[in-house]
Amino acid sequence: MFRMISLAAAGLGLIAFTILVIQVNERPLAKFAGHKAGIDDVFASPDGKTLVSMSADHTLKVWDVPTGAERASFPGTTAVFSADSTTLAWTDGTTIRLWSVASGKEMSRFGGRQGQFCSLAFSPDTKSLASGCEDGTIKLWNVVSGREQATWLHGGGRIYSVRPLQFSPDGKTLASGTYACVPGGAIKLWDVARHTARATLRVPSCDVTSFCFSPDGKLLAAGGDPATLWDIATGRQTATLDTPEEGVEGLVFSSDGRTLAAVPRCGPELYRWDVHTGKTIATWKRSCPRPRPRVFRYIWDAFPCIFEEHDFIPRSVCFTAGGVMTLGFDNRDETTIEMWRASGL
Questions:
Q1: Percentage of the chain modeled with pLDDT above 70
Q2: CA–CA dist 188, 137 (Å, integer)
C-alpha cells in the first residue's frame, strides 16, 4: 500500500512539474511596453522589422523589432506602412503625414481639412494613398505631389465613417467599410483606375469591424457577427466562419493564405480558422495566474477580484515575417505588445 501511495505521489509530482515547465516556457518572443492605455491596433511593416501600435491613450508608437526600442511616438489616430516598408503614413485626424522609416523624419504632409480622417491605405505600388473620413468620403491622393486624385462617397448620400479601408494586392480594387449599419451592405469595392464603384457586398452582419484581402487577392474576409469569406471576382459569399456570439474584429490572413486569425469583440481568446473549410482550427488564451499563499489566504478570500487569475485581453493581431504573430493586449495590470511563434498558438 505504501509503495502504491509513493508511486501515485511521484506521478502527481511529475504531472505538476510538467505543468510548471509549460507555464514557465510560455513566454513571448518579444515584448513591448510603453502605452498608458489599451492597445487599439498593432501592425507590422511588410519586412517585419518595424511595428506600429495605436492606443486608447491617443498615441501612435513606432517600435524597432530587432532591438525592441521605441523609435517614435506621435499623437496619431491611424497609420499604414507602404508596401516597400520605407514609409509610414499617419494622421492626427486632420492632416496626413508621411514619415521615413530609415531617417525617422517627416517627409511631407497634405490633406489638411476640417473633417476627420479615420482610415488610411497605401496602394501596393506606393504611388497612391487612400483616406477614409468621418463624413463618408473616400479620397485618393498622389503620394509624391500630395494632390487629390479622386473622391468617392461610401454612404451614397448618407454620412458614415469610413473604416476599414484596404487595397487589393494587385492595387486594382479598393475596399471600404463602415461600422454603421448601411442598408444593402457595408462593404463596397471600387475600381481604382476608373474611379468608379465595382460592387457592394451584402454582408450578413449589420456592421463591419474589419476586413482583409487574401494574399492572392481572390478572397475578402469580413469581420462582424458572423465573419464571412467573399469571392472578389463574383462578389458572392463563399463561407461563414465559426464565430463567437459577440463577433470578431481585426481579421488577418496568414502569409500563405491558408488560415485566418482574429480577436473577439470582447473576450480573452484568439481565434484561428481554416480558410477552405471555415472551421475553427484553435483558440488561444493567455492568462496570468496568481498563486494563493497560505499566509494570505484570508486576504485573498476577502478581495478575490484583486488576487484571482486574470486574462490578457487581445485587442488586435497581425502576422509578421518568419511565421510570427503579433498581439496587442489590454490588461488590468499592464498594456503590452507581444510577439509569438504562430505555430505555437
A1: 78
A2: 12
Strands across the sheet containing 137-142: 117-122, 128-133, 137-142, 148-153
Of residues 240, 224, 241, the one with CA closest to residue 186: 224
Distance CA(265)–CA(254), nearest Å, equals: 20
* Greatest pairwise CA separation for the chain in angstroms: 86
Return d(Cα 102, Cα 72) in angstroms, integer.
12
At residue 22, the pLDDT reads 26
The string of pLDDT tens digits covering residues 193-205 is: 999 989 888 887 7
DSSP string, 276-302: TT--EEEEEE-EE-----GGGHHHHHH
pLDDT score, position 11: 47
Task: Check: CB of residue 154 under 8 Å from CB of residue 178.
Answer: yes
- Interatomic CA distance for residues 228 and 204, integer angstroms: 8
pLDDT at 150: 92
DSSP state of 342: G
Q: Provide the whole-model pTM.
A: 0.81
Show me where the domains of the chain are located: 31-344
Q: What is the pLDDT of residues 95-131, one digit of tens each?
A: 999 999 999 999 999 987 656 888 999 999 999 999 9
Q: Give me the CATH topology for the region 31-344.
A: Methylamine Dehydrogenase; Chain H (2.130.10)
Helix (H/G/I), strand (E/B), else coil: 63: strand
Q: Based on C-alpha coordinates, what's the Rg of the chain? A: 22
The identity of residue 85, as a single letter, is S
Number of helices followed by number of strands (H, E) in the chain: 3, 30
- Closest alpha carbon to 331 in 268, 280, 264: 268
- Please tell me the distance from the alpha carbon of residue 51 to that of residue 55, in angstroms, as a whole number: 13
